[in-house]
Amino acid sequence: MKSILLAIALAWGSLTAGAQSHTFEINLAQPGAEIQPTMYGIFFEDINYAADGGLYAELIQNRSFEYPNHLAAWDVSGCVTLLDDGPFPRNPHYLRLAPTGHGAKATMIENHGFFGIGVKGGEEYRFSLWARCPEGQSADLRVDLTDPATMDEDQRFATANLHVSGTEWQKYTVLLRSPKTLAKASLRLWADPTATTDVEHLSLFPVDTYRGVEGGLRRDLAEALEQMHPGVFRFPGGCIVEGADLATRYQWKNTLGPVENRPLNENRWHYTFQYRYFPNYFQSYGLGFYEFFCLSEQIGAEPLPVLSVGLACQYQNDIRDEARVHASLDDLDPYIQDCIDLIDFANADPTTNPWAKIRAEMGHPAPFGLKFLAIGNEQWDYPDNPAFTARLERFIGAIRKVHPEIKLIGSTGPDSEGEKFDDLQQKMINLRCDLYDEHYYRNEAWFLDSINRHRYDAYPRLVCSGCSKGSSCSECSKGSKRSKVEAPRVFAGEYACHGDGKKFNHFNAALMEAQFMTGFERNADLVHMATYAPLFAHTEGWQWRPDAIWYDNLTSFRTCSYYVQQMFATHRGHRVLPLTMCGRPVCGDSDQHGLSATASLDYDGSIIIKVVNVSDAPQPVTVHLLKGKGKKGKGSPKAEGFTGIDVLTLHSDDPDADNTLEAPTKIIPQPSHLSVSGTEFPVTVPAKSVVIYTVK
Ligand code: AHR
Q1: Is 378 a catalytic residue?
Q2: Does 344 contact ligand 1 (Cβ within 6 A)?
Q3: Which site in 75, 179, 542, 581 is 20 to 30 Å from 696, CA atoms measured?
């Protein structure tokens, strides 16, 4: 072991010995822009079985028999009939379980969950159903958790009985304790051989959910979100906001009230890719807007809902079909009203507003404090038809009249650059959006390209109030009376590095993202929010990767991309501090040896330095903390007096590797400490690494 360590030390020494040493200068006297608390956030969309089968802890699939194939995820035996005059008008189907009339033939229904039902040894599960005895008697039902694949004599491993009585629908609940851990159990409900029973909305939840909420969220997944410390939480998507057609767009009002009566919606990711097709992918809306708002509050993030602009998915619908497919300009009122009602649902007084009253009845009388609303997802205009912006203008006009306090977020469409992007960017400025949402799923070359590393350095901050143009306005440059107004701020609403030929999670992609994120922070006056996407993926149910967090029915793991987000979010800092090398910001330029870096001043006076080294060589750097020549900024810390530096490093020797279900902590941020003091300190930034130094 000793000789291995010696060899490593020698190799390290020889690698670094020859390397040129760099100097970072951080000017403590001139704290710059505030870094918004919303800077690093999360994007949630029900893609990859992120909601049902994922974050929403329900274990029964098609619990209300409302899938188009009413018995999808179910097997039935004996005398089972589907009926449709049930107690929940928006989910009218239920099953009638009748005696077979033959002692040896049982009536039984069996649910296979989402890729099986995952249960853990020693844990309790709450089974519930709505039931009645239509013929007036009472019935004894039995519920079993079973292992259909076992070689044991008995497939059952947990059993409970339920006594149903009366002709009125009632909810019955029973707890089952699982003696063993199994990823692919099934649930069987056995009918009474002597009495007919109607059953509806069968449900099975772990008792141990996130924060113990009954019928709540899967604990490991929600805790992963909380531990990311996101500043903003965008929901519910993504393309799912738009729908493949307007009828199937995400309709937040359908997600309120008792879960039994929330109508099923299709999930466009069921059929978006025929090469990854999931015919049983629907949205139960058990995880709806109320739950999203509560989750935002629990994880300490600003809620950021995205609503439809009246356009169905433009990828899937030709604009020449406009009249048939999209809401015309004259038909936008209900869509605009949805936005206004949502703001009221979140913020209004429940004693005077009907939407706020629903919020209070659902358990949250206090307002959620909504500040942001995005309108439209990936929308765009056509040369002969301003499909998006003509609609958006109506929304902005109407919403601003009643809710001027809400910051409205437009979109620059699906492209990260090019004609469509330029067109939309200028139009978002003209429309005076508060922020615009940009998306980029691009390869390594894109992330490393100088244009993109400097992307936000070049964006307009102020525009002419007359023409909305930046520096190109001749009136402004002539010094006319026109004033300058703030340009919209940036919301990098969906981004991830999709490696060339490596469209899967791996360390190098996370490294690309980290170096790009230093550009967000350097431009914190402009970039106010950024959310990596997508967030979740089930290993057996994904349509899109890479993603931040993966899971199967029992366990989960966080990817390197997750850890980059977490590192940045937990070390955000409050104000940007100027950080230079040879007088220039450190942006990974060709003479900067693969280094990108930013510095910030935290609320407690700590100095946070984020450094990303994308090169193959360790980079020695001496960090100088300068008090500066100019006037000290308010609250500027003294350069003297630091006695130690906390270091957090994310590195992988294999750039193609990432964590897995089997090895969930293979690549995680490693903490260490440097015992140094004074006003400068030397460090070596390992090759291919993300390092955060916190100078206390
Ligand atoms: O994140 C997956 C998809 O990518 C989103 O639904 C959409 O907005 C984008 O095209």
Answers
A1: yes
A2: no
A3: 581
